[in-house]
Write a structure and sequence with these properties.
This protein is an all-beta fold. Helices cover about 0% and strands about 35% of the residues. Strands 1, 13, 14, 15, 16, 19, 22, 24, 25 and 29 form a ten-stranded antiparallel beta sheet that branches.
């Protein structure tokens, strides 16, 4: 594939995803539909744009990416993430979703919904079988973040997570900074401090469909590459066993580009049978070097390529195995089985209960920091 080094100037492009109403965003969203309150806190839609014409829309409800509009190989803009057309659809009483959300206090699963820190056991809510998933049923994806800074290419959000919230110790002050660069990258930085020992593991949970047409296409024809030689096997509850296993000779070997659908149905491989597809944590070979690609996905239909960079040791890749068409998203589209892929930079699942793994403990006087970059460009076959 030949790489298009820069995306075509916006002035020359016709947007296929936006309506002609000038009050709408390029992705077709009405900002007024995102104005409101939740728990007496104000909510709005914030739009980032760059000189190339790329657009990212974010709401401070859950620190969620609502839309990402990027041009395909023909210069047509595509909205490449799942989401909703109005803020009320994100409320938990209407939809149980983590579309585009900032996840915390602990992304992914904590086994048995408990962990021990400094000799004290903490009990968390069980919202995924016997486990705690994504910080619990009222995790940060259902919190309203304060807006500290905002301009055309930059949004800084803040949240205070109180001691005891969902069972986690310590008052934690969190910042999430979104920056849209001129070379079409979404640079996400996470920061946190605490007044008592705690655990923390943050990520973004965007659901990508690079065809821009989830009503018509799954992600099974997309080409995936992951810079990882090993993964963390899990038990039937998707909790890691503590082993680090090689991907060599398995359906999880994406060190060279592979069509997602090629091996996703190989249920003779237990991790795929347990997860109903891809929903595993890969141990990245990048070793925290954010200049090295952790993974990439290409849509052969549009030529849009997403490249992920991170300083985290792991990447959870999830292929929408539990989307069943019962949730209706933007433009009235029912989000069906395997119509999205998530690429979640993270420490490994259940790390609080795995002493040998990279630590997720944050103590007073320390600063948590994590970074993930979603970069977009176009390739021509």
């Amino acid at each position: 594939m030949k790489t298009t080094l820069s995306l075509i100037a916006a002035a020359a492009l016709a947007c296929s995803c936006a309506a002609p109403d000038s009050n709408l965003t390029k992705s077709g969203l009405d900002p007024k539909a995102f104005e409101g309150e939740y728990n007496n806190s104000s909510i709005a839609l914030y739009t980032l744009v760059n000189k190339s014409g790329m657009e990212v829309c974010i709401t401070n409800f859950g620190g969620r990416i609502v839309s990402i509009a990027v041009p395909d190989r023909d210069g047509k803009y595509r909205d490449v993430v799942h989401g909703f057309d109005s803020i009320t659809e994100y409320f938990p009483e209407n939809n149980d979703s983590n579309f585009g959300a900032t996840i915390g206090r602990y992304a992914n699963r904590v086994g048995g919904a408990k962990f021990t820190l400094d000799g004290k056991e903490y009990t968390l809510p069980k919202n995924n079988g016997e486990n705690c998933l994504h910080g619990g049923p009222t995790g940060w994806h259902y919190s309203v973040f304060d807006v500290l800074e905002q301009d055309a290419s930059h949004l800084k959000l803040a949240l205070v997570s109180k001691d005891g919230e969902n069972g986690f110790p310590g008052n934690v002050n969190v910042n999430v900074i979104f920056t849209l660069t001129e070379d079409n990258k979404i640079d996400i930085r996470y920061e946190a401090t605490t007044d008592a020992p705690t655990i923390i593991n943050m990520t973004n949970h965007s659901y990508f469909n690079l065809s821009g047409e989830p009503e018509n296409f799954t992600v099974l024809d997309d080409i995936l590459q992951i810079n990882a030689s090993s993964f963390t096997p899990t038990d039937a509850g998707l909790i890691p066993t503590g082993e680090i296993a090689s991907v060599e000779g398995t359906p999880l070997d994406f060190r060279t580009p592979v069509r997602i659908g090629e091996r996703i149905g190989d249920t003779s491989f237990e991790p795929i049978a347990v997860a109903n597809g891809y929903d595993q944590n890969w141990v990245l070979d990048t070793k925290g070097d954010i200049s090295k690609p952790a993974a990439s996905v290409v849509s052969p239909r549009t030529g849009i390529r997403l490249t992920v960079y991170t300083d985290e040791p792991g990447l959870q890749v999830y292929t929408g195995n539990f989307l069943d068409g019962t949730v209706t998203g933007k433009r009235g589209v029912a989000y069906k089985y395997r119509t999205a892929i998530c690429l979640e930079s993270q420490h490994y699942p259940d790390s609080p209960n795995k002493e040998a793994w990279p630590t997720v403990v944050l103590r007073p006087g320390e600063k948590y920091s994590s970074r993930c970059i979603y970069g977009f460009d176009v390739v021509n076959e």
